[in-house]
Write a structure and sequence with these properties.
alpha+beta
């Protein structure tokens, strides 16, 4: 249980936001008012530009 939690934590921290093998991007974009909101579906991080 702890081992799996540590692996997921490491994967989130080391996420490059795309699959290195297939070159597929995990980033999804949406619009909030006049700003763009991006979220990585792999590590679940989000940011607003």
């Amino acid at each position: 249980m702890v081992k799996r939690w540590l692996e997921r934590r490491r994967d989130r921290r080391n996420c490059f936001h795309h699959n290195l093998k297939t070159r597929e991007s995990w980033i999804r974009q949406s619009i909030i008012d006049y700003r763009k909101f991006y979220v990585c579906t792999h590590c679940e991080r989000g940011w607003v530009i």
